[in-house]
Amino acid sequence: MNTEQKKQLIKTVEQTSPWERIPTSVEGVFHVKAPEHKNIQSVFVELNPSLRGQPIKKRGVYLKNSNEYEAFQELFNNQKVKELLDVVSECYGKQRSPRIEIWLFFMYDFFIKFHRFKSYIYFFLNKIIKKKLQSSSNK
Question: Whole-prediction pTM value?
Answer without folding.
Answer: 0.57
